[in-house]
From TrEMBL:
<dbReference type="GO" id="GO:0009055">
    <property type="term" value="F:electron transfer activity"/>
</dbReference>
<keyword id="KW-1133">Transmembrane helix</keyword>
<dbReference type="InterPro" id="IPR009056">
    <property type="entry name" value="Cyt_c-like_dom"/>
</dbReference>
<keyword id="KW-0408">Iron</keyword>
<dbReference type="GO" id="GO:0046872">
    <property type="term" value="F:metal ion binding"/>
</dbReference>
<dbReference type="Pfam" id="PF00034">
    <property type="entry name" value="Cytochrom_C"/>
</dbReference>
<keyword id="KW-0349">Heme</keyword>
<dbReference type="InterPro" id="IPR029467">
    <property type="entry name" value="Cyt_c7-like"/>
</dbReference>
<feature type="transmembrane region" description="Helical">
    <location>
        <begin position="150"/>
        <end position="170"/>
    </location>
</feature>
<feature type="domain" description="Cytochrome c">
    <location>
        <begin position="28"/>
        <end position="121"/>
    </location>
</feature>
<keyword id="KW-0479">Metal-binding</keyword>
<protein>
    <submittedName>
        <fullName>C-type cytochrome</fullName>
    </submittedName>
</protein>
<keyword id="KW-0472">Membrane</keyword>
<dbReference type="GO" id="GO:0020037">
    <property type="term" value="F:heme binding"/>
</dbReference>
<feature type="signal peptide">
    <location>
        <begin position="1"/>
        <end position="26"/>
    </location>
</feature>
<dbReference type="Pfam" id="PF14522">
    <property type="entry name" value="Cytochrome_C7"/>
</dbReference>
<keyword id="KW-0812">Transmembrane</keyword>
Length: 400
């Protein structure tokens, strides 16, 4: 290989390196943001303009200045109390629904969430997204990864072309200077010859192989992280039971049917007998209600399809969270009372549990059990007692 070509190959590698590292930081920002968003915000917000518990966050970076967003995420109630008009209007519009504060999020983390929201909206919309009925589109399904990959491949192709063109120029120049005068060959022909030369160059080949391997490795890791995550899962049920109708319109309490949710580990899915409390009188003739009768006659339970399902290795207790922790169902399940078909809104990953345990204050008011702990904690800490301070990050609390 002549010296000029060698310089070019070096140039190629530094360019590749620069490019790969820029890509990596960008992708990492959006990827960190994606995890943070899915673990902390997705129960109440979509990254599109769909309204869930709170407004869809699409376009938020244009709607609000970043300083405002940071203040808001750290402490929404403080922003509202400060008299901020935008915040108060929004709060009233959402019927004074209180957003969870995230005082521990760094500005960088909040920016990465916004980067993810912007990236997922910049990505070309999935073909079905427009046509799907409202609510059926999986929240945050559009991954920032998709757009990044397209961008990456596009830039790579451009780069290779620029390189070949440069090589052509260098070759022509060196031939001119050495007095060879075959530069009459048509431009395209020279271009093709140089492309061949470049492809034959072993350093370039190795470079391309390494790059392909890196790219493949990243895709594999991404796929592995996605395994077992069923966010957005909303299976069809054997009876068209609607939470929107029962829990929303008729305002039947969640624990009327999910009898264990404040007392036990499991929330329980109601047996047909509970349905019969009402449906022995209401809508008896409906074919859907007839299915309840059939189940009771055959003495078989209704075959509800399970939506949320942690692996056996993890221990989760409802009453610990709803009763002791005073959390609302929507913190983890989203607004089920607005769902025609139940959908899994949170990721249910370990990171999701841990993130919340890092951020959430222990509800210690009026709980004598915590008095001593709070006293000890406040002696050497200025921040309120968090779940992580009572052992919420210990492996054995969540794993048998
Ligand atoms: C428990 C539900 C809930 C969670 C969790 C939640 N929010 Fe909110 N958020 C709301 C509600 C409700 C509003 C509307 C204002 C109000 O009622 O307080 C809102 C408003 C906002 C707004 C202003 C939106 C606009 O259109 O101006 C931003 C920004 C925001 N949230 C960001 C976040 C981020 C980032 C997270 C995750 C770190 C998050 N929220 C988690 C419920 C939630
Ligand atoms: C009239 C009875 C009834 C009421 C009231 C009710 N549910 Fe349900 N719920 C069901 C039935 C039946 C299922 C199983 C079928 C389904 O998924 O739609 C279910 C399923 C669920 C699931 C999914 C369970 C799984 O398999 O993972 C969640 C979460 C849930 N309900 C939450 C709530 C919340 C939150 C409320 C209150 C806002 C509520 N439910 C009120 C009857 C009820
Ligand atoms: C506390 C009373 C109550 C309970 C308990 C209850 N329902 Fe209902 N259900 C209603 C009411 C009220 C309606 C609306 C009837 C109407 O539209 O006239 C309804 C409507 C329905 C419908 C729609 C029927 C149709 O064809 O329009 C289905 C399906 C249904 N319920 C299934 C169930 C199932 C399954 C359970 C048990 C998990 C259940 N319901 C428990 C009160 C109840
Ligand atoms: C801290 C988060 C959290 C809160 C708050 C929460 N849930 Fe759950 N819920 C879960 C998880 C996690 C699962 C899956 C449990 C499993 O697979 O073992 C689940 C499962 C369920 C199921 C499926 C049946 C079962 O027992 O596994 C129902 C029904 C349910 N929740 C209803 C509710 C209702 C109603 C409320 C509010 C009163 C509520 N949940 C509050 C996290 C939560
Ligand atoms: C929305 C926030 C939130 C999420 C999500 C959440 N937790 Fe919790 N968790 C809490 C709070 C708050 C407490 C403290 C309750 C109390 O006061 O004892 C708690 C306490 C616990 C405890 C008892 C800890 C101790 O030291 O006493 C366990 C175990 C636990 N959670 C398991 C889980 C698991 C497993 C998941 C995920 C599947 C999960 N949690 C998801 C908020 C959350
Ligand atoms: C607050 C609850 C919680 C704590 C604390 C916790 N885990 Fe987990 N862990 C979970 C949940 C929930 C899952 C299941 C997640 C899933 O299915 O994606 C899990 C999954 C795992 C898995 C299986 C991973 C996989 O992909 O199947 C391992 C291994 C694990 N945890 C190890 C640990 C270790 C080690 C610690 C202590 C440093 C720990 N966990 C602390 C909740 C917790």
């Amino acid at each position: 290989m002549n010296r000029n070509n060698f310089t070019l190959v070096k140039f190629l590698f530094s360019f590749l390196f620069l490019f790969a590292s820029t890509y990596a930081t960008l992708a990492q920002d959006a990827a960190e943001g994606e995890t943070l968003f899915k673990n902390n915000c997705a129960a109440c917000h979509s990254s599109t303009d769909e309204v869930l518990v709170g407004p869809g966050l699409k376009g938020i970076s244009e709607r609000r200045p970043i300083e405002w967003i940071v203040k808001w995420v750290h402490n929404p109630q403080a922003v509202i109390a400060s008299g901020d008009k935008y915040a108060n209007d929004l709060y009233n519009k959402f019927n004074k629904a209180a957003m969870t504060p995230y005082p521990n999020f760094s500005e960088g983390q909040i920016k990465s969430i916004i980067a993810y929201i912007d990236a997922s909206n910049a990505a070309p919309a999935a073909p079905a997204a427009g046509a799907a009925p409202a609510g059926a589109a999986a929240p945050a399904a559009a991954s920032s990864g998709g757009m990044m990959e397209v961008l990456l491949v596009g830039l790579l192709v451009i780069m290779v072309f620029v390189l070949i063109a440069l090589l052509s120029i260098v070759n022509t120049l060196s031939k001119l200077s050495s007095g060879e005068a075959d530069s009459e060959a048509p431009l395209m022909q020279r271009f093709a010859e140089n492309a061949k030369k470049l492809a034959a160059n072993s350093a370039v080949k190795t470079g391309i192989i390494i790059f392909a391997l890196l790219l493949g490795g990243k895709a594999t890791i991404d796929a592995a992280y996605g395994v077992g995550i069923h966010q957005g899962y909303a299976p069809e049920q054997p009876i068209k039971f609607s939470h929107k109708l029962h829990a929303g319109q008729y305002q039947i309490n969640c624990n009327y049917c999910h009898t264990g949710v404040y007392e036990g580990k499991g929330a329980n899915v109601p047996s047909a007998n509970i349905c019969m409390n009402c449906h022995n009188a209401i809508k008896r003739e409906s074919p859907e209600i007839q299915k309840i009768y059939q189940a009771i006659e055959k003495d078989e339970p209704i075959q509800w399809v399970r939506v949320h399902n942690l692996p056996d290795l993890a221990y989760f207790n409802h009453s610990q969270h709803t009763n002791v922790g005073n959390l609302e169902c929507k913190n983890c399940h989203g607004e089920v009372e607005k769902m025609e078909v139940v959908e899994q809104r949170s990721t249910l990953t370990m990171g999701w549990c841990i993130d919340c345990h890092r951020n959430t204050d222990v509800n210690a008011k009026g709980n004598a059990y915590y008095d001593k702990l709070v006293e000890v904690h406040n002696k050497d800490s200025k921040t309120p007692l968090k779940v992580q301070n009572i052992g919420g990050l210990e492996c054995s609390k969540c794993h048998y």
